[in-house]
Structure formats: C-alpha cells, structure tokens
Amino acid sequence: MITRVAIAGASGRMGQLAQAIVAELPEFEVCAKLGSQSALSDMRDADLIIDVTSPAASPEIVEYAVRNGIKVLVGTSGWSSEKIATLRTLLSEHKDAGIILIPNFSIGSVLGSALSTIAGQFFDSIEIIEAHHAAKIDSPSGTAVRTAEMITAARKTQGPVRAPHVDQAARGEQVASIPVHSLRLSGVLAKQEVIFGGVGEVLTITHDTLSPSAYESGMRVSIQAARDARGLTVGLDSVLNLDVLTGMSGARGGHESSETER
Predict the structure, then answer these.
(1) How is domain 3-104+213-256 classified at the CATH fold level?
(2) Which one, 5, 38, 40, 93, has least CB within 10 Å?
(3) CATH class for the domain made up of 107-210
C-alpha cells in the first residue's frame, strides 16, 4: 500500500532532501508540495505530512494535520517544552493520531546527545556551545534544547548543574539549568559541543555536521516510522530506541501514546 506524503517547506533545503528520500522509498510517494503561499487544505489527500517549515508556521500545520487524520513528521526546530505540551493536549482529543518530532535527523548528533546524557550524570559543571549557519532564525537550537533537557532529566538524584553568574547575559541562556551559548556564523552548517568540567579534568563531546547528507539516514528511518506512528514521539533517539542506552526509558520526551506511555 502506497503512503501519500505531503511536504510543507518543499522548496527549502530540508524539503528538497525529504523529496529525494521519499522518491527512493518504494512504498511512499509525494502527493503535495506546500510552500509559504499554500493553503493548509493542500495536504488533505496525504496520509503523512513532513513539516520542515519554520517555528512560526509549524504549529498550525501540525494541528491541521492531526485534526484531519494525517500522520505528522516534524523536522522543524523551535518546539519548546511548552509547545510540546500543547501537542499532548491535542493528541488526547485524537486517539489514533501520530506525531514524530525530530529536532535533528543526524544519527551522529543524536548519539552525541545520548552520550552527553550518560556523562551528565557524573559531572556537575556542564555547558553547551552550539553553532549554526547565519540564516538559522531560532536559538538555542532544538538539538541543544533537547540535549540539555535529556541531561537534566537523567540527573534526578544529582539535581541541577552548577551554573555561576547566570544573571550575566554573557553566561548564555539557561535551558533546564544548563547554560547554552549559540553562535550563528557564515561557513558553519551545524556543530554542538557539550563541555563537562570535573575535578582535574574536562570532557568535551563534539559533533560536527559537514554536509546535509548527514540527515539522510535519520530522515529515512523517521519517515518509515511516521507512517504507523501513534501518540507523540520526541527525538530521533526515541525512534532508534536509544533510551535503552541512556537509561531514559519512560522519561519525558520519549515515546508517548495519547493514552498511556509505551
């Protein structure tokens, strides 16, 4: 059975990548390409919508899809914990709906975040530096936000990290108690460093995205998972079941059904 796919943000870099990947998958086909001037109803014939638009446009696209029985794969960043909470409310009204929300499709990046979640349980001094291309409009990045939230969720017994002088703007934005510093630079695609300070040592977990091709494997597996999604799944780590590695099974941000946690 063919799954009909609509792509919102089809003309952008990630939208074009999504089109190429769907074209490679024998059980999927693109049925609609949505741009900034498209009506939401243009996706009405789709079984699945891939949203790679903007933080401002994404919530309306997702809500329309859920209310019209269309599965959703979100590759748009800027989804804060507050916005994600609205998705849970929406899904409670639509029991058969499914949303997969992916801050970053790079497998290397999600492994970096998973390893950082493990390391974060052994260090009390932690900061994140993330860099993206100059055209990225949101900060901190969705990847940095998710990494910080995963680390803090795993530190239930240790409590918040040590972050001195947070009243100073130069100390970065605190996300789940962890200072995050955002750089927007020409010549950069994406990079994240998670720095852990301990007595007599410093550990740095770094991931560099060198080409958009880094997103291909993660997007492919996410598209295939989204076809049968139910409830809310946040993060490529959840799609790949990396919560077994991090010990985060059942924690906030993993697989969630609209009725019970999986």
Answers:
(1) Rossmann fold (3.40.50)
(2) 93
(3) alpha beta
